[in-house]
Amino acid sequence: MSFKHISVLKNELVEGIITDKSGTYCDMTLGGGGHTKRLLELAPNSKVMAIDRDEAAINAAKENLSDYFTRVIFVNDNFINIKEAAKENGIEGFDGIMADLGVSSPQLDNPERGFSYMSDALLDMRMDRRSDFSAMNVVNEYSADKLCKIIGLYGEERWAKRIAEFIVKARPIKTTGELVEVIKSAVPQGAREKGGHPAKRTFQAIRIEVNGELDAIESAINSACDLLKPSGRIGIITFHSLEDRIVKQSFASLAKGCTCPRDFPICICGNKPKIQIITKKPVLPSTSEEEQNSRAKSAKLRIAEKL
Ligand SMILES: C[S@@+](CC[C@H](N)C(=O)[O-])C[C@H]1O[C@@H](n2cnc3c(N)ncnc32)[C@H](O)[C@@H]1O
User: With a 6 A CB cut-off, is 106 part of the ligand 1 pocket?
Assistant: First the structure.
């Protein structure tokens, strides 16, 4: 299977985390392997432990990286388990770790995966098809209140309340096509003209909920930073303001170390800073990258270095 995904901020991320051309690296979100491939090219004696929770992505990346087979260890798991994966593969520390969060183009573009509002398929949206929780559960089982919160927060959708109420009334909803029609009927005609496809934000919100996308980030960053060797680097690309906030705050707290209340005269927690932040402001794609790849538009890259 070919995997058509244009990697975002490819050189910025990879060059930003290479600290040793013979080092050991981790790609926490392998996807089609675009970032990993660049890393293997730029660091010719390196090895990469490459994680993805989506088996289809792992299989596609194996094809894409066939020239580098001996230098890549593939791990089909959630990146929250990075410590266990490193241990199982006999890796004690990494010289660099990268993540490119969110969804890949093939996940969105393959109608069978039920991610897309552009084609009709059974509601699904699971990145990991071993999971027994899908968009079918969210759409048909959540209360109107819970749906409203998710669609408002993860989708930043101003019509969240109406959409949630319309979904509850229209149940059962089995397909992406049916869901699109319900959303269209909930969003007033005048509001539909602006902001792209009327279902875009609701679909994004349901996808984030189905995959617990925000839940794993902070814990994975803490584990990743524990696994970094001194002067090793971590780089993370986000596509959503809530994701970026979690990365920014997690880096800030690891860079600060001490967790004592501000009014304590001396530190009693003893926590020391673990990283220093390299990108004071996030790195953004150039205008030409944004023109060539619309997915790049909301991307932000943050990099930190282990002390
Ligand atoms: C934006 S794509 C990565 C694309 C890749 N960097 C490339 O250049 O081809 C994100 C990938 O991360 C995976 N992913 C998202 N959350 C994950 C998680 N918690 N654990 C493991 N993989 C995850 C998705 O399945 C998807 O394949």
Answer: no
